[in-house]
Amino acid sequence: MTNVLPQPPAGHCFHCLQPLPDDGGYQVKVAEQQRDVCCYGCQAVAQTIDQQGLLHFYQYRDTSNPLQIPLLPEELKQLEAYDQDDLQAQFTQLEANGLRTTTLSIEGMTCAACAWLIEQQLMQLQGVHQARVNATTERVTITWQPKQVKLSQLLSQIAGLGYRALPFQAATQEQDFKRRRRYFVRRIGIAGLATMQVMMIAVALYFGVVDEVDGNMRQFFWWISLLFATPVLLYSAQPFYLSALRSIQARQLNMDVPVSLALLSAYGASVYATVINEGEVYFESVSMFTFFLLAGRYFELLAKQRAIATAANLVKLLPATAERETADGSLESVAVNQLSAGDIVRVLPGQTLPADGVLLSQEADVNESMLTGESVPVVHRQGDTVLAGTLNQSQPLRLQVAATQQSTVMAKIAALQDQALANKPKLAERAERLANQFVKQLLLLAAATFLIWSFIDPAEAFWVTLAVLVATCPCALALAAPTAVTGVIHQLNRNGIILRNTDTIEALRDVKTIVVDKTGTLTSGQFALHQREYPSQQPVLADALAYALELHSEHPLALPFKSLQPEQHVQLSQVVVDLGEGIRGQWHANDGTQQEIRMGAPRYLAHWHPELSAQTSANVILATEHEVLAYYHVVDQLRDDAASTVKTLQQQGFEVVMLTGDKQSNARKVAEQLGITKVVAECLPQDKLAYVKQQQQQGPVLMIGDGINDGPVLAQADVSMTFGQAADLARQAADVVAMRNDLSAVLALLDATKKSRRVLRQNISWALLYNIGIIPVAVMGWVTPYIAAIGMSLSSLLVLANSLRLNRQPKR
Description:
Layout: E1 26-30, E2 33-37, H1 40-51, H2 56-59, H3 74-80, H4 85-88, E3 92-94, E4 100-107, H5 112-123, E5 128-134, E6 139-144, H6 151-160, E7 164-167, H7 173-206, H8 215-236, H9 238-249, H10 256-276, H11 283-316, E8 321-325, E9 331-335, E10 344-347, E11 356-359, E12 363-367, H12 369-372, E13 378-381, E14 385-386, E15 391-392, E16 397-403, H13 409-422, H14 426-456, H15 458-471, H16 475-494, E17 497-499, H17 504-507, E18 513-516, H18 518-522, E19 528-533, H19 539-550, H20 559-562, E20 571-578, E21 582-588, E22 594-600, H21 612-615, E23 620-624, E24 628-635, H22 642-651, E25 655-659, H23 664-674, E26 678-680, H24 685-696, E27 701-704, H25 711-716, E28 719-723, H26 728-733, E29 736-738, H27 745-779, H28 785-804
Parallel strand pairs: 18-25, 18-27, 25-26, 27-28, 28-29
Antiparallel strand pairs: 1-2, 3-4, 4-6, 4-7, 5-6, 8-9, 8-10, 10-16, 11-14, 11-16, 12-13, 12-15, 17-29, 19-24, 20-21, 21-22, 22-23, 23-24
């Protein structure tokens, strides 16, 4: 097939069959031969067809009528469809810098070496900024520049390696799992049936049942064994060969290379012995080896499915259809992907919200446990933001759509999960590199074993080498890290904690200092106006100005002012938020004058009114350069779990430091209630950043904050944590996002990562112990090939079972 391809008439393009230009055109290598083509376009397409293994396009086309021949195989046309913007909007995220990010499902992956190979090939493409593959979930997360490289090119690159990549669809994941399970069950079934038949014959031969029969009868039994073992080798063991061929093609050896060598060598030697009726046959070893390996891969598939079920179930919560209001007030049923911002939808009790939006109903009880891990319904009121995937529990509600599909909070959480699964801790990367290097050393060891045994006992040299190839295959080492990381990520997800950066698992090991912001972190962030004073005797004007200014702020302190209902309208321009200090703008008075107005902490207005700090205890002041318009006392309550969480952290040996921009007196008051002895108050954003840098000189720091002004310090800390209701800047900078909005989430984080580190080290230690310990046993010839297969499979299953313990940990 590779070289015998129909040729076009002389002087015509090999691809499009049109006449070549006078200069002869261009050339492209297809099926190991140079072919003449007419242009760069045909050259590129022909090269892609050859790389994708789609040579049947050329083999079976009818060259007699060039005008009826398509220029692209159907397979490539399907890939090009993914370049359409409306289709990409359903499964990609557009980043602020013009990059696009998507998650693809990979079919055909078998181990960590496959993941490494795909990553390396994708990163070679110009325009690909990042490609991270997770062998456990069999997904790749790619960030690329659409102006430099198309998505279809990325899919083609993966297909050229022998894998099939398609946009990840959580709704079809269960069907994909069932299909792959049937794929393994069929092969295991054939291998199992054949193994039973071949073993019966082998037992008869081993125990001398046919000793009294002539050699012809023995050879007849061998031929029967060959008949049963052949389907096992050609069909059941096919996954190992495909994986090995892909790795050899990419010049990166994986674990299936020694497995394939062992199977083919044992089968070939046995066939030779059968034909010449001399020597020994090991058809039962081939069949049993294949059966145990397939069984191990099958159980590995089941374990992976269990590990990733949490994320899949999260995304499948979104409904397929929604009830949208029409212009005349009637309802129409539409697909969720047809909703757009501004649409009004109705959701009945017991139904799932199809999109993020603003609540138009007076009140609604919403179960947000799928996001936060808390089963108690949350009461939302008119104007509140409600999220897709949450459950309406009490009465029909109306909401105005704000975000759909990939823009919803639910989709962003799923993207964070995929990002975390794609990222690998440094320990996991070292384990993968070690596994890849181990395969090369294993092949060298097998060659040395064969040479040594050729002098000791030539008859046993082949079978001892075979056992070495099988027993020392580092499958368990390759599984050790990915399975443990996947387990802890989904344990945290069940508790409403999203881990964005898996290096956090290792980084938390050395953390002894926890720096905590006060407002919105130690306190609930539910501010209320406790007291108002108007020295200018203009309360209506002051409240109107405060309302107009704070509409431009996302700071938690701005919320109570946004709920004011001013009786007067004021005009502002050039409004600027000064992070960590306050907000200012130009006020256009009714008399035509214009002056700057400021609102914020006393220190923010100190250069206008130096006496403020001494004269008032108010924490928010509204003033112009000439007069103070209002003093506002905004109060906040401590979180219910703040005191118990701080106490537990201190008992565990952590130093808890309060770092806040609030006044020293307010900060001290809160610290005394919580038992915090170290307080750093009245800090600007740059002061917070400087303090954390200073603390990092003494050791790693965990920073917990939720405000816009906490973004820089969260990015600076060794590990950072924020909450689902935090400002966007804080969520983007943090390594961990606690969707359940409880401070005690930090205890769950510390506990889960501690257990995961223990499991990760147990996995790697066991895998190394097994692989290093089995080497001398196998080299000495004390392990038969099928016992080696059992040992290798059991070592991998032990690693998987140990990692699954993380999924059984009870929720806090």
